[in-house]
Amino acid sequence: MGEGELELIQRALHGDVDAWGEIVRRYKDAVFGIALGILGNPADAEDAAHDAFIRAYEGLHTFHLDKRFSTWIFAVTANVCKNKLRRERLFAPLKHISRLTKGSDPAQQLAQQERTQIIKDAIDQLKPAYRMPLVLRYYAELDYKEIAEALGLPEGTVKTRLHRAKSQLKHILEQKGVTGHA
Amino acid sequence: MHEHELESLLKETLTRYADAHRDRIADLEYEIVEELPESRPNPRPRWSFALAGAAAVAAVFAIGLWVGLNLSAAPCSDPDVLCLVYPNAKSVSLASQFTLWEPVPMNGPDRSGVWWLRLPKDIKPGRYEYGFIVDGTRWVYDPRATEFVHTFDDKINSVLYVAPPEESEQP
């Protein structure tokens, strides 16, 4: 747990919303990144991040103070995203290409943008059941055990889903001619 | 494509994609804080219920039907009671200068996960440092304290002021 984090959580448990604001400031990038990875749409990810922090605050008493807070907040985020996917049936891949990077060389920038978009589209093509552990593993950098806790799955299932997710991704990317070298 | 190349592509893509849209959450903490006063965490209303419950139990006590501390709510509104919310702890003790740093087990938890301990009646007026020991190992300071000190071993102690009998407020 980060420096002062336990104290912030304790204060939030006592209803100190400013303490919770500090927690949000510390975790918003990670939570947003996870939501974006799972949902694939920035507007939905913004809503999900917002909902995750509100829901986490309301359910803060269920957090075990001796566990890692990051794993818990990521689990809340994954659940918010799962419910959002279920509710809105957002299984379609992204249709638009966003501006992703800023660089000095326009040609290189465009190539990198296109490559990022192809990979992002490939991730979006995966079933949510595969996409969620993938995002938690490679964006949030959780280990298998933490992903299992976050998603409420056995560790073996997480390993299997990650393996299948990567196999499918590899297949999709190879079909699109994406290699491992930029 | 090798597995490590795929993993590195994944990480790079997810990070870059999130970075590109990060401005959407620039003010998220402020939005959340503005929204939260209307959306208290569950322990708050339960705490209110707990205080109401404490009053009810006190009335019951007055007519001789006290049924035991652990069934009542923690009397945290009492200035002579120290409280800590720690729902998942198996045990919480208080250690302080007035206990000569010997851990004293706290009562609880109540149904809201609150542990509490009443200050000894014979405590002398003065300034006391203290903290809580959760599950026998974790040192936790009192977030409700108004003053804190860093110890030489990089822990944080809370500070409690006990006023002489004629005074009622802490400095």
Which terms summarize this structure?
heterodimer; A: 182 residues; mainly alpha; Rna Polymerase Sigma Factor, Chain: A; Arc Repressor Mutant, subunit A; 2 domains; globular; B: 171 residues; alpha+beta; Immunoglobulin-like; six-stranded antiparallel β-sheet; two-stranded antiparallel sheet; 3 helices; 8 strands; elongated
Can I get a quick summary?
The complex is a heterodimer of chains A (182) and B (171). Chain A has 182 residues and is mostly helical. Chain A has helices spanning 5-13, 17-39, 42-58, 69-88, 106-125, 128-138, 144-151, 155-175.
Structural account:
The complex is a heterodimer of chains A (182) and B (171). Chain A has 182 residues and is an all-alpha fold. Chain A folds into 2 domains: 1-91, RNA polymerase sigma factor, region 2, helix turn helix motif (Rna Polymerase Sigma Factor, Chain: A); 100-182, Orthogonal Bundle (Arc Repressor Mutant, subunit A), CATH 1.10.10. In chain A, 71% of the residues lie in helices and 0% in strands. Chain A contains 8 helices and no strands. The radius of gyration of chain A is 18 Å and the shape is globular. The N and C termini of chain A lie far apart (36 Å). Mean pLDDT of chain A is 82; it is low at 90-103. Chain B is of the alpha+beta class and 171 residues long. Chain B has 2 domains: 3-37; 73-162, Immunoglobulins (Immunoglobulin-like, Sandwich). Chain B is 27% helix and 23% strand. Chain B is built from 3 helices and 8 strands; from the N terminus they run H-H-H-E-E-E-E-E-E-E-E. In chain B, strands 2, 3, 5, 6, 7 and 8 form a 6-stranded antiparallel sheet that branches. In chain B, a hairpin with a 7-residue loop joins strand 2 and strand 3 (104-105). The longest helix of chain B is centred in the first third of the chain and has 20 residues, at 43-62. Chain B is elongated. Chain B starts with a helix and ends in a 9-residue tail after the last strand. The model of chain B is unreliable at 42-50 and 62-71 (pLDDT under 50).
